[in-house]
Specification:
- The complex is a heterodimer of chains A (115) and B (113).
- Chain A is 0% helix and 55% strand.
- In chain A, the strands form two sheets. In chain A, strands 2, 4, 5, 9, 10 and 11 form a six-stranded mixed beta sheet that branches. A five-stranded antiparallel beta sheet of chain A has the order 1-3-8-7-6, with no helix packed on it.
- Chain B is mainly beta.
- Chain B has no helices and eleven strands.
- In chain B, strands 2, 4, 5, 6, 9, 10 and 11 form a seven-stranded mixed beta sheet that branches. A four-stranded antiparallel beta sheet of chain B has the order 1-3-8-7, with no helix packed on it.
Chain lengths: 115, 113
């Protein structure tokens, strides 16, 4: 089982719709969760961080965390063509007691927002 | 600009040659990370430092890879005897403390021919 898994893509949504991106993780000791956006040929840029169960909203983005289910998601409301990118879920894991502070990434989900 | 800086941005090298990448983190950040990313995959952890101490190195990393952060500031990643499979984007990132946001540089693209 991969440490961090994201829903397989690519995901295509029409402009103005809600895009839903999902991620599961294997280490129950994980404490910090991040969503990064990566445009083609560019490095990842942080969109959201979430540390506690529940929802966290920032503009059109909402991150949801459920530690019991080991699940984190990102909702993008009113999707725009400029949101078209690869979205990376990252988890700060304490696996093995030695990996403190290491971010483990999922494989990414490609999102395309079409006009 | 006070973000994470990487140099060079692009490197083309012949198989068997050595290459070195440099990373300058955000100035107040004590943690520095190296990741590698290939097409269609998420970034893969290579190693990280807290100040000048290298705290973890991926088991996937061969002995051809070495990283240093001699004074707890900038870091270098050296790849010896490059192979075509080393072609990737090498990402440097930094953060302050545990669990806080990790910020990435723009990456260094390596092509081994």
């Amino acid at each position: 089982q991969k440490e961090v898994e994201q829903n397989s893509g690519p995901l295509s949504v029409p402009e103005g719709a809600i895009a839903s991106l999902n991620c599961t993780y294997s280490d129950r000791g994980s404490q910090s969760f991040f969503w990064y956006r990566q445009y083609s040929g560019k490095s990842p840029e942080l969109i959201m961080s979430i540390y506690s169960n529940g929802d966290k909203e920032d503009g059109r983005f909402t991150a949801q965390l459920n530690k019991a289910s080991q699940y984190v998601s990102l909702l993008i409301r009113d999707s725009q063509p400029s949101d078209s990118a690869t979205y990376l879920c990252a988890v700060n894991s304490l696996a093995g007691g030695t990996s403190y502070g290491k971010l483990t990434f999922g494989q990414g989900t490609i999102l395309t927002v079409h006009p | 600009d006070t973000g994470v800086s990487q140099d060079p941005r692009h490197k083309i090298t012949k198989r068997g040659q050595n290459v070195t990448f440099r990373c300058d983190p955000i100035s107040e950040h004590n943690r520095l990370y190296w990741y590698r990313q290939t097409l269609g995959q998420g970034p893969e952890f290579l190693t990280y430092f807290q100040n000048e101490a290298q705290l973890e190195k991926s088991r996937l990393l061969s002995d051809r890879f070495s990283a240093e952060r001699p004074k707890g500031s900038f870091s270098t990643l050296e790849i010896q005897r490059t192979e075509q499979g080393d072609s990737a984007m090498y990402l440097c990132a930094s953060s302050f403390g545990f669990g806080n946001t990790i910020y990435f540089g723009e990456g260094s693209w390596l092509t081994v021919v």
